[in-house]
Amino acid sequence: MSSRWVVHKFGGTSLADAERYRRVVTILRAEEGERKAVVVSTMSKVTDALVELIELAKWRSESYLACLDVLTARHVWKTEALLLPRLRGQHATKLDVGRFDANRTFPPLPSHPLNGLL
Length: 118
Prior knowledge:
By secondary structure, the chain is an alpha+beta fold. It has helices at 18-30, 46-58, 63-82, 90-94, 102-105, and strands spanning 6-12, 36-43.
């Protein structure tokens, strides 16, 4: 007879830093049973940062590059904080974040009454 599934959803402040990720692992390991599903959404404030990036890129503001660098650095830092000490530092050199040019990636939109809402 198969055991029931246990589903956990984590995101936001529950994934805010390396210590919180470790807490999630502790919770999952403490849960009895073999059938576990884990749903993970963004870390704290990442959705807001992505929305800001989209807005800046949409308006062709060059400041989106600085915001992208901050968001990338934040993810690298948090990922490295979870790695074993002997592996830290290697991660950032392997991470290849492709930059994009908002002016080339998002061509000017034709005039349309919904443009301001999209």
